[in-house]
Amino acid sequence: MAGLGIKRFFINKGSSFWKIRFSIIFIWLFSFWGVMTSCSDKKNKEEVSVDKKQYLQEKNDVGIVILERQSFDKELLSNGKLTANQKNVLKFKVDGNLKKLLVKNGDVIRKGQPLAYLDDFEYQQELNSSEISFKKARLEFEDMLVGRGYDLQNKENIPENIYEMASIRSGYSEAENQLENAKFDVNSTVLRAPFSGKVADIKFKEFEQVNAGEEFMSLIDDSVFDVEFNLIESEVNQIKKGEDVEIQPFNTGKGYFGKIISINPIVKENGMVDIKARVQNDGPLMEGMNVKVIIQKNVPNQFVVPKDAVLIRDNQEILFKYQKGKAYWTYIQTIYENSTSYAIIADPNKNSAHLREGDSIIVSGNLNLAHDSEVTVKSTFEPSLAKETQTK
């Protein structure tokens, strides 16, 4: 009996154990299912939210300008280089040691001002000897004429052949020529400015040997510059001598205005034609400076838009027109260009492309627009916007 009781006890105990174990497993499975269901619902909600965002149309703020016909300032552009209207390389005409240098690079000097001296001792000695020889020859010359009975006070009465013969035999002509040469050599030891300007490219220092004909320094008249540039042959017939040009140095961007002074009537092998214009310098322009050259040509009766209005889509030029809260693109072609604007026409190869006076052209906020995008006009520019932009 006792053994039977113990057996029943373990049977009852084992039954309770398995009931508890199954209960725990059921509760764990139910909790796991609940968590997975919750995550799945959340994921589905997020996906639906993302899809809605993808298909939600954005409102784009844009600026517009009313299209009208106006004059367009077409620009012919080129690059050029400044050269001084007057520039000379200065040289001594005699040899010698540089005794004194009176200027430095960049100095502004006036015409006739001495710039440098050579040691002139030997040339002064030669001059003194020439003066003595000349005086001796002149006495001999006068004695010959007096000996022939001619009055030296009335030289006009002396026959020309007699005068010439006496001057040669007495050595008077040769002495006179040597004296002039000696004076020239002495004067040549002083280098003087042939015109007013600025000193540049000094190549010697004091006490160095300078040879005759050797480049010593340059002198530049920088009050006026010539700018040399090129245009392609198809553009040359659009300009003429005396026409205005604008010159902009690359380092400053400031504009200077000049006039075309020459058009070379020869087309080079590369199809370019040499043009030269002249401009006054108020100080900053320098010899050899690289500049941008702009020639403006007025073309009347054009549709003009700012450059920001024109976009490239599918390798074609387009712009967006505004109509009743939406943006519609239309294909166009740019026919003229300047630094800020385009003159445009509707693309003749597209039947759907149209431009009319009074069209509202989107000029800002258009970079990310698509055809039929909803837009909101935040600013409306005056019809003369493009024209005003050209002149800024």
TrEMBL record:
GO terms for cellular component: efflux pump complex. GO terms for molecular function: efflux transmembrane transporter activity. It comes from Sinomicrobium weinanense. Belongs to the membrane fusion protein (MFP) (TC 8.A.1) family. Coiled coil: none annotated. SUPFAM superfamilies: HlyD-like secretion proteins. Residues 93-215 form the Multidrug resistance protein MdtA-like barrel-sandwich hybrid domain. This is Efflux RND transporter periplasmic adaptor subunit.
